[in-house]
Amino acid sequence: MTFENTLEFAKKLDSQDQLHKYQDEFIFPQVNGKKVIYFTGNSLGLQPKRTKAYVDEVMNDWANLAVEGHFYSEKPWWDYHERFANPLSKIVGALPSEVTVMNTLTVNLHLLMVSFYRPTKARYKIICEEKAFPSDQYMFQSQVHFHGYKPEDAIVEIKRREGEHNIRLEDVLAKIEEVGEELALVLIGGVNYYTGQVFDMKTITAAGHKAGAYVGWDLAHAAGNVKLELHNWDIDFAAWCSYKYMNSGPGNASGCFIHEKHHNNVELPRFAGWWGHNKERRFKMEPTFDPVHGADGWQISNLPVLSLAPYLASVDMFDEIGMDALIQKRDLITSYLEFILHEIDEEVDSSFEIITPSNPSERASQLSVLLHGEGRSLFDYLMKNGVITDWREPNVIRLAPVPLYTSFTDMYEFGQILKAGILGKANL
């Protein structure tokens, strides 16, 4: 498609967008009496309007039924999480038995490492990406310390080549082969939070397995954003948060995937709890743990239904739309934003460098932009003028045109605000 940097063209794209109506499903903050252009769904998604009804339902059941709500509410609390199995499995490309919801992201990654990071004297190393999200880095360090290893010995980071912003697939594969028989686990973010690079999860997983290691993925920035095929890619485990692209609310519940090939492995250790125990016998209060078959068997505690309600509201919306439709718009609106940035770049003195890969197969709903010659003052200008974006040192803004609630008109208007902010500074 040949793009144009005009309001008329942007409105034409909006008129052809089958998802455009979903903007009305969300609540937008207001700046200067106008709804914002929201680019930070990669950090916290907007609130769907339907969320309140899901939460109110739980609150009303609690008020009217009290403890009996566990069994007699319209959506009984004791099996509330089971409503996620079918829609969530479609979002991440899994069997319904392979997904569950519980805890929060880093908690779940720690719990999954109980099962899948089992170092031995000979095989103890973890491969991860350089500059992974800090929470992952802290997790790796504490895990290897817990097992009696030094991080500098056990953690192997795949680095970017000098002068490059993204990690090359061939370098990932070469590092896996190099570590070889010392490799216990490959655990990488499916989408790098800083650059927006999407990794080739299928190829990397196959390479890790060939080396004899388990392979897991942190899908914080991938779930609800990237076309995933976790089952078919033979991934051992994965976890993700729900509050970014899946709009479940701040700090909300995490999702987990455990491949079915591990469900019957009684030798695989896990930390057990009451809610992972055989559902039909749970209330017999038996002393010996008998895990639920499937990913639910990794649950530990009674689930926080009030937290799950907003997540279910969003998952139901995803089920209405389907990932294919989301990704089709994602690719088009991200390309249009890229075009707008290049157009504005030619009209101002500053220079924009998009450090997210240009290949659509290596990116999703995020463009990370180095603003050469610009500083924090430009970010502040954007925020004061109704563009909610994200600043990362030294001078990177992350822009996530989430297909559920951003429009092509938003992209055009953002370009005009960005240009005004740069030219206004130059004219001072």
Structure description:
By secondary structure, the protein is of the alpha/beta class. The protein folds into two domains: 145 residues, Aspartate Aminotransferase, domain 1; 243 residues, Aspartate Aminotransferase, domain 2. 37% of the residues lie in helices and 15% in strands. It contains 13 helices and 17 strands. The strands form five sheets. A seven-stranded mixed sheet has the order 6-12-11-10-9-7-8, sandwiched between helices. A four-stranded antiparallel sheet has the order 13-14-17-16, covered by helices on one side. α1 packs antiparallel against α13. The longest helix is centred in the last third of the chain and has 25 residues. The chain is globular, with a radius of gyration of 23 Å. The two termini are 38 Å apart. The relative contact order is 0.17. The model has no long low-confidence stretch (mean pLDDT 95). Catalyzes the cleavage of L-kynurenine (L-Kyn) and L-3-hydroxykynurenine (L-3OHKyn) into anthranilic acid (AA) and 3-hydroxyanthranilic acid (3-OHAA), respectively. Keywords: Hydrolase, Pyridine nucleotide biosynthesis, Pyridoxal phosphate. Homodimer.
